[in-house]
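Cast an eye over this sequence plus tokens and explain the fold to me:
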Amino acid sequence: MFYEKLSYLCSKKGMSVARLTQELNLSKATATKWKHGSKPYYSTLLRIANYFNVDVEYLVDDEYLDFDEWLADVKHTTRAEVLHDVKWLEDERKSDAQDADPMPYEVLLPLLKQLTPEQVQRVKDFVSGMLS
């Protein structure tokens, strides 16, 4: 069911699952595994949920395909009320997004990919030192 839900979300955005995996820097093999029933790691689910502006719980719930229906059931409210709330939240997120800096990994990942293995080790050591 996960892959069907992912395909549904992608189609609502006018894109393919392959395009999504590119945008999230995931391999095509990963999407193929999902198509054959494998489940994504939680960290990947979180990235997908953030990308589509949905809850992780929705992604793993096999009962509902449509997010608004799932949300209405979870909130025990009507679909119309959910759509109203979602519209308000989307407007809020758009205004917040205009002010927000890009996510750190979106900035750092392209830079890290350009480093040599020795430079990557130095970055790891530096970050480990910052965290200890």
